[in-house]
From TrEMBL:
It catalyses: 4-methyl-5-(2-phosphooxyethyl)-thiazole + 4-amino-2-methyl-5-(diphosphooxymethyl)pyrimidine + H(+) = thiamine phosphate + diphosphate; 2-(2-carboxy-4-methylthiazol-5-yl)ethyl phosphate + 4-amino-2-methyl-5-(diphosphooxymethyl)pyrimidine + 2 H(+) = thiamine phosphate + CO2 + diphosphate; 2-[(2R,5Z)-2-carboxy-4-methylthiazol-5(2H)-ylidene]ethyl phosphate + 4-amino-2-methyl-5-(diphosphooxymethyl)pyrimidine + 2 H(+) = thiamine phosphate + CO2 + diphosphate. It comes from Jannaschia helgolandensis. GO terms for cellular component: cytoplasm. Residues 13-180 form the Thiamine phosphate synthase/TenI domain. The keyword Oxidoreductase does not apply. This is Thiamine-phosphate synthase. GO terms for biological process: thiamine biosynthetic process; thiamine diphosphate biosynthetic process. InterPro entries: Aldolase_TIM (IPR013785), ThiamineP_synth_sf (IPR036206), ThiamineP_synth_TenI (IPR022998), TMP_synthase (IPR034291).
Amino acid sequence: MSLDRFYPIFDGPDWLKRMLPLGVKLVQLRMKDLPEDGLWQFIAQAQALCRAYGAVLVVNDHWRLAIDAECDWVHLGQEDLDTADLPAIRRAGLKLGISTHDHAELDRALSISPDYVALGPVYPTILKKMKWKRQGLDRVTEWKRLVGDMPLVAIGGMSVERAEGALEAGADIVSAVTDITLNDDPEGRVRQWIEVTR
């Protein structure tokens, strides 16, 4: 199945309750600094919501809990790859997305045969401190050439206004976080995103 081109990232099921009814079909749940027992409950709730709305849920980092909650996708950063049990993830039938920021990380990701590769930050991001400077659209084009048919996710500083440029540069999917969550009208912003990516 092909993934939707709009890929918002939220930090809890409350966001999903608001955004899935608007037509979001691909969403990542990224929750940091929560105890595992609370996390499982949130992941299971998010999975139930996504199933109800016919959306794909991607769980960031917590692959064991994603397996327990019978999720379909997990997203791992490079540091997560150091400790994740990739054979267990594959045995559970989970599809896998991997973050990349430079050629060495891309080579590592491709050696694992993921189901998508993310490149970031395409533009400067306020979400988290990173040692990588903005990658730019030329890097998006280069990455797409290197990954071939594998879906490429552009992330980092993405906005409705920048989405079209990223897609034209070669991204298959555009991911957004603060452009939605810090917007005065998150629902209105999501509607704009859906309009420019479909």
